[in-house]
Design a protein that fits this description.
With 215 residues, this protein is of the alpha+beta class. Helices cover 23% and strands 32% of the residues. The protein has five helices and eleven strands.
Length: 215
């Protein structure tokens, strides 16, 4: 699928077809896994009261290729302070599906309104032990570069970048990350716009990278 990145119509068509087949799965997330993990199935068996959330990974044509975008969370006293992430959040009572959760949160956080018709499919869910959330990532098409309207309380910045950067070995590294008072981790990561993309979001992009490589 790499060779289609400069042709948005063919790329979107190929990606739509790809999501009708089995996903690469957890093994494709492993290169960006920051810590020892058991399978999501085992996590859920041990944590039957987990909560569900959903995020949206959007792809859109820009400058003759396919782009995607991340948000940077504001700095605050919390687990995800300043991290790069995808728009999303927990399932609310009125959400009729996980896909609707991802779409609603995307509109609330970055001002882009999409429908389920824009969604190609879902990547492999990832369980987050620290918050007891099972995160469901969805991939969606935006037909043209969107006009972002970030919620200043939820989003500090929006970082757009070409999907081809996921394939660039020079933009992969290991970095020491501050995760709490006097606590650090050495994690695998992508370097996006000079910033560190790590953790669950990096694992989602790792699976997308695998799909782009034809897996």
């Amino acid at each position: 699928m790499i060779h289609l990145l400069n042709n948005s119509e063919e790329f979107f068509s190929a990606l739509q077809k790809r999501f009708s087949n089995p996903l690469p799965g957890e093994s494709s997330q492993e290169p960006m896994n920051a810590r020892a993990r058991v399978s999501t199935e085992k996590y859920l068996a041990n944590n039957p009261t987990h909560r569900s959330s959903a995020v949206l990974l959007s792809v859109f044509p820009h400058e003759g290729t396919i782009y995607t975008a991340l948000i940077r969370r504001p700095a605050y006293e919390g687990t995800h302070s300043g991290q790069l992430a995808l728009p999303g959040g927990k399932v609310e009572q009125d959400d009729i599906s996980l896909a609707q959760t991802a779409l609603r949160e995307t509109q609330e956080e970055v001002g882009v309104k999409l429908s389920e018709e824009n969604i190609f499919g879902a990547l492999t869910p990832i369980y987050i032990p620290v918050s007891n959330f099972l995160v469901h990532p969805f991939v969606a098409k935006i037909s043209e570069r969107p006009i972002w309207i970030p919620d200043k309380h939820e989003v500090d910045a929006i970082i757009e970048f070409p999907l081809s950067q996921l394939l660039d070995a020079s933009l992969k590294d290991r970095r020491r990350i501050h995760i709490g008072k006097n606590m650090f981790m050495d994690v695998p990561c992508y370097i996006i716009d000079g910033q560190v993309l790590w953790g669950a979001t990096a694992m989602m992009f790792s699976e997308l990278e695998s799909i782009l490589r034809g897996n």
